[in-house]
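We modelled the chain as a single entity of 785 amino acids. Its sequence is:
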Amino acid sequence: MKLSTIFFLITIFVSSLIFFFIDRSLIKFSNIELKKCKNLDYEETKLFKQIIPSNLTIEIKFTNERDWKRRIIKGHAISYENKKISGFSSRFFTYNKRTEGLVILKSGNKKCAVLAKIRPHGDFLDHRSGLDLPSLNINLVDGNINGITKFILFRPITRHNDNEILISKIFSKAGFLSPRTFNLKVKYNNKYYDFLFQEKIVKEFLEYNNLRESVVIKGDERFAWFDPFKTVNLSKHKISNNKFPVKSLSNSIVSEYSVSLMNNLNRIYEGEESPKIVIDYDTVSKKLEKNYFTNLNTFDALAYAVEAPHALARDDRRFYFDPFRRTFSPIYYDGMGRLLTITNEPVHLNIKSPHYRKIYFNEENKKKFIPSAISGAHNALKLLNKIDISELHKELANSGMNIKILDLKKSLIRIKENLINLEKIPKKRIFKINTNLNNKPFMNNDDQYNKKINRRFIFYDNSMKKFISCNLLVNECKNIDIDTDNKGKLLNQNLKLNEIQYIYVGKKLNKSSNKGWYYQTQDFKHINKKKIYNFPNLNLNIFLDKNVKFKIDKENKVIEFVNNSQDKIVFYDSEIDSWKIYLKKSDSLFNKTKVHKLERQDEYGLTGCLTFMDTKVIDLKINIENMLCEDSVNFIRSHGNIDMIKIVNAEYDAIDLDFSKVDFGKITIENSKNDCLDVSFGFYNVKEFIAKKCGDKGISVGENSKVKILNANIFKSKIALATKDSSISNIKKLKADYVKYCLSAYNKKQEFDGGVINIESLECTNYSKKYNTDNLSKIFVKKTK
């Protein structure tokens, strides 16, 4: 009998003994009186709002400890099978089933509990060896930690300890998407463990970074350890969330577009010397004379400079897809940086120390670099020079990282030196990157791959609406029905039917490898449906449907738009100073047009008939009539001041504000069938607000927003003012008449807490209920009539 098998049997025996003692403790646990975090009152909740990570500890308890241990053991058993099937040198883990439990939050002498679903995390033994807690993947069910509902607890050794905190924070400070990461004490079975807490790259992460939910792209790792290292045609790209594409048709289009594009870039890439597992996407994009990526060369340079090139591996890269700009933004993930360490124990940087590791840039090292990193080094250095060291040091301390400011300064100096040296790397140390448009997206007869795994490719038929299944050599093809739910799994590269694992390619089944890709068909439709107007002298960039008619009076600064049905108009990357904008549809057309089932967002991520995106507005005046879109006007990541806005007849929301900071003079809205004013994720001031006939809310304040209004008058609305989800409304004077609720404050979404309303003077008449609130929220009124 092999030693590994003997060790495994001993592990089962020891674990069985543990079951006996732990199960007896469940009786005691079942009698513990512990408040759920969602049941705290407003004052108690304040103690847990924006907890400084260094002041937080958590305790983990499983509803069924025996069930948890069984799954741990099963995971180890399957890892032995994986090693045997794959022929890989090490055991690796693929069994990851969740167990129900509790996460108990402790801050000071206060604590509360959140229901959770927990599973082991990690591919290899560094995450799972021994009988202690493995790395954990946790989904909170009914609460949050600083707005985070899904996170991973890494054994510190698996992310090189404090390196991960420092590097993730540097990427964030440099303006890149990077998950919040901090040290955390975790109690389990009366024993304390050190973990690295890192938020997962999900919807809440995107919104925290002022982005609407969209596709997050990652590599498909299902077969990473079963096949030879360079077998990339069987390990394509995937979306990270299989539920996103099934929510709407537009979500499905965005998902198919982004995955098919990345799969095609992966197909044509040829690194003469660079292994295909690390792909220089930026260089490939430029060789195609495209601009598919945002600041990717800067990201790549910074990854090398902080000595975390593991983040550049094909299967570890993460990208956010912007459906409007049709570009990918890099997300820092799994850099495995060693800036502070030479071993797995933290050693603060000292350039004079013999422990300091110049592993990349010294002349003796023959290590090569991808071209994108060379081209991005200069800009990365500029971004690094803008970082406030004192602020960074404070944030690191709040993250539970104990580093002296002198050591931090030395770290940043070394990163800057690395970037300077990176610019000077000789050509012989730069990988040669090529493209081959004729590369096939499937397997060849002489390719090496694991034939023990039953898997097939999925292509589109000629209509691009149905699917065809083929074997790995693209023989024996046949039609296959894939319903909506399974389509989400397919795009997540997680579809398995009748023991067959399916691989989404993203193109139709034809002889040409370079034609018939899904994203190409969408780009063709884009050319026929959309127009872009750039007016550099006016600082205006306009994107719109071809059906939209408009005329521009440059001298008087007036633009008039006329749209049809739900046509879209977008001002993006603009500065709109003292313009008047009119958008209308004739009353006869408004009354006659039938609104089909509304897609909340289209395939460009747009909800507004008129949208201002990443734009500065100054003394803007807007007049809108008869709109049929989800939002008559929508502001996204925009700032400035609007002198006047008037909207009449909105089929859904009249004004929607997201991730913005805007001051309004006067807002007038009449007859909006949903909300008259809906704001989220921002800061908004209003001098005068007048709304008549709001189908739902006169003013809706949500998703961590702060609003100040001097004078508000609301007539005929279901709710005059609603404030929810960690938002605060400060109103000097509010007058409401003929409403169901005068004021409503509550929690709606799991990742947030309640809402707070402060009103100096309230006059509310003809209402069903004056105040509506829950235990997490509060309404303060100084004077009422």
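As a brief sanity check on the tokenised model: The two ends are 86 Å apart (CA to CA). The first helix runs from residue 3 to 30.
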